[in-house]
Structures are given as C-alpha cells and as structure tokens.
UniProtKB/TrEMBL annotation:
Residue stretches making up the Caspase family p10 domain: 227-319
Gene3D superfamilies given in the database record: 3.40.50.1460
Pfam family, one: Peptidase_C14
UniProt source species: Littorina saxatilis
Protein name in UniProt: Uncharacterized protein
Organism domain of life: Eukaryota
Family in the record: Belongs to the peptidase C14A family.
GO biological process, one term: proteolysis
CDD domains cross-referenced by the UniProt entry: CASc
Caspase family p20 domain segment(s): 59-196
Region (Disordered): 1-20
C-alpha cells in the first residue's frame, strides 16, 4: 500500500529488523521458562463421565436419511437404494428414530429440514443427518473492497436443484434449533466434492471381495457450474464426508456407496466401549485400504482410491451402542 502523506512518520515509528538466531533462542528461553514451570505444577488430566455427552435414558434422537436416486435430465444413481437400506438399518439398531426421505425436490428438502429443526429435541441425546446423493465442490470468485479470491463450497443435489452444505447445516445451529443446543449433531455426506481422482499408494493390504468386483460409479452430476462458498462446522457438530475436497466419491451399483458400506459395517459393531470418533477413524481406514475402483471400460476412473474425511467440533465424546429395541423406521410424508 502507498504511504499516506497526510500521516507522516513520527518519532514513535520504528522498523521491524530481523532478529539473529541467538536473539531468538534467548527470547524463547525467556518465554518457555515460566511456561515449563506452570506445566510442572499442573495436575494430570483425569477423564470422567463429564467428558461424555449425556444421552440419558431417553430416546437416542432422530436420524434423518436422505437418498436421491433420480434427477431431472441427469444420470440416476443405481445402488442408492442399498444405501437407504443400510443407513436405515444401522441407525435403527443404534436406537434412533429413522426418517427416510427419497427423491426430494429442493423445496421439499427445505420444508423438511425446517420442520425437523422446529421440533422439540429436548429429550433426545443427539441428531443425525445422512445424505446419499450427487454432489460437487466448485470455486467462486469472492470480490469485495478488501478481498479478491476464489472460495470453495460443497453442494448436494436434490432431484431438481442443489443446496449448499452451508445452508444445510445452518438449519440445526443453536440459533435455528435451540432444543439441540449442547447436543452432538452428526452429518454424514455421501456425495462427490469435485472431479479429481486419487491414484493411491502401493501398500500391503488384505483386499475385501467387494473391492475387486463390480463396476464402480461416481456421485458427480453432469450439471452446469454453480456459485459456491465454504461450509461451516459449529460447536458440537461433526461433519463426515465420503471424500476430501475436490475429489470423487465412488458407488457400486450392486453394493451401494463405499463410504456408506464401511460406515454401517463399523457402526453396527458399536458396543459402547469406543467413542464415535474412534469408530469413524476405522471407517476411514477401511475405505482407504480395502476399496479400489473397478471400471475397466473407463481407464481414467479405474483402480482409483478414496479417503473419507472428518470435520469435528465436538467438545465431548459420543458413545453409541446397538440396542435391544431398534428404533422405528418411518417414511417421510
């Protein structure tokens, strides 16, 4: 920036000269000495039940499962019905009241999210939203008086249009859904987040039978570019995506999505001994090591890998356990 001649330098202005390494070391000793003293006097961290979210003896909560298979003027998602079956079964076994939504338009999706957010969740332990659909992550030129940059935002597609994940999660913020305040809200998103492919690295793994057969597809739409910006992750939120920013998410028409298969397989073994973040880390490991795309007729998509990712702002541990009385599975009306 050019100097402003109306505010000339005064005697108080100084230049920031670089420090020598010896000066840096001396400064670090001065800073670290009291810090080390404080550490020595600190009591060891003790874990107790206060470090866990309290789910109480009431209902687990609502698990909203959204499956979009058909799209107006665009390729469908064969195998997504298997995602619906897997997700509904898994969250029912964990004690959730499952509400299944299929092939909704954008307006229907908004109305549904608004209605669920306005419900009284006071007795619930947590909330889950799982989506299996087409998706993308695109760049936007963000220009203002101070900024001129490109910004990314994830979008998921309804049957007729798209919604940003930013807008989606906002429905369940503390402000818009106050009865979920202080409770964990977990989002599982099976959708592409761009058009890149992961070549993977050669490692020694035991390949599952599912990783060696079938014709894999990607959850990327053949749709025009949209304007996008980044999605937030609030306190007490966890967002798990099937793939990192910019990458495809694979789905096998005969078995369903890689991510959903692994997620359901792991969660159905919840016994309350490990917190959910540990379980989800296992999901990442399974998808990354045991799956590889099989699309011999399309070499560009063949023998590719996928790695789910987690964005967590949970402030405590979440423990789930398969229940003796599965929750209800309802179709959205």
């Amino acid at each position: 920036m050019d100097d402003d001649c109306s505010n000339p330098p005064t005697a108080s202005d100084e230049k920031d000269f670089p420090m020598s390494m010896s000066s840096v070391r001396d400064a670090m000793k001065t800073v670290m000495k009291p810090f080390a003293s404080r550490q020595a006097n600190q009591e060891p961290v003790v874990w107790d039940d206060s470090d866990d979210y309290s789910t109480g003896n009431g209902p687990r909560g609502i698990a909203l499962v959204v499956i979009n298979e058909t799209f107006r003027g665009h390729k469908g998602r064969t195998g997504s019905e298997l995602d619906a079956q897997n997700l509904c079964r898994t969250f029912s076994l964990l004690g959730f009241e499952v509400r299944l939504v299929k092939d909704c338009t954008l307006n229907e999706f908004k109305q549904m999210l608004e209605q669920v957010a306005k419900e009284d969740h006071s007795s619930a332990g947590c909330f889950v939203l799982a989506i299996s659909s087409h998706g993308d992550e695109l760049l936007q030129d963000r220009k203002s008086a101070l900024l001129n940059r490109k910004v990314r935002e994830d979008v998921v597609f309804c049957t007729d249009f798209y919604m940003s994940t930013r807008e989606l999660v906002l429905y369940f913020s503390d402000t818009n859904c106050p009865t979920l305040k202080g409770k964990p809200r977990l989002f599982f998103l099976q959708a592409c987040r761009g058009g890149s492919l992961d070549e993977g690295q050669e490692v020694k793994v035991i390949m599952s039978p599912q990783s060696q057969a079938g014709q894999d597809e990607v959850d990327a739409p053949e749709l025009p570019e949209v304007v996008v910006s980044p999605a937030p992750c609030f306190k007490d939120f966890l967002i798990m995506c099937a793939t990192p920013p910019g990458y495809y998410a694979f789905r096998r028409p005969t078995d369903g999505s890689w991510f959903v298969q692994a997620l359901c397989s792991v969660l159905e073994n919840c016994d309350g001994s490990r917190d959910v973040l540990q379980m989800l880390t296992r999901v990442i490991n399974i998808v990354a090591q045991e799956y590889e795309s099989c699309v011999p007729l399309n070499p560009d998509n063949d023998k590719k890998k996928q790695t789910p990712c987690i964005y967590s702002m949970l402030t405590k541990d979440v423990y789930w356990k398969v229940t003796q009385q599965p929750g209800k599975i309802l179709s959205w009306q």
